[in-house]
Design brief:
Layout (H helix, E strand, L loop, with lengths): L1 H14 L3 E5 L13 E3 L6 E10 L13 H18 L4 E17 L4 E18 L2
Parallel strand pairs: 2-4
Antiparallel strand pairs: 1-3, 3-5, 4-5
């Protein structure tokens, strides 16, 4: 029983991370996230490594409570850079960003409560800039 609880907690703490990727090229050796450049356009020479999706939603693995839209965007950029760096990408090209609202509804005998949570999402292409 104790082992099951520990396993469940481990899955919750590590499994709920709002970043995912699809590798479409050749990955490289991991680098530091600080070496990853954020771009809006593709450079002259590059290789595509992966497509990355990220969200500013709360995650136990990377907890933060971001209130402003800018702080939510900053969190997404940080998460995109970390994911890209693990794949060996030294650049990310931002493809899309969006503002989202999620409704959480709680119902009990006495009342129904609706809570809105606002978050941002982004899609980027992880690239290796040559030269």
């Amino acid at each position: 029983m104790r082992r099951s609880i520990v396993l469940l907690l481990a899955m919750i703490l590590t499994g709920c991370y709002p970043v995912s990727h699809i590798v479409v090229g050749e990955t490289k050796s991991p680098i530091s996230p600080s070496q990853v450049k954020i771009l809006l356009e593709y450079p002259d020479e590059y290789e595509i490594i992966a497509r990355i999706d990220a969200s500013s939603e709360f995650a136990f693995k990377d907890p933060s409570i971001d209130i402003t839209w800018q702080s939510k965007m900053d969190k997404i950029m940080e998460r995109l850079k970390i994911e890209a760096a693990q794949l060996g990408a030294n650049g990310i090209v931002i493809e899309n960003t969006d503002n989202k609202t999620k409704q959480n509804i709680s119902v009990n005998k006495e009342e129904t409560t609706v809570n809105d949570s606002h978050y941002k999402t982004a899609t980027a292409t992880a690239i290796f800039i040559k030269g």
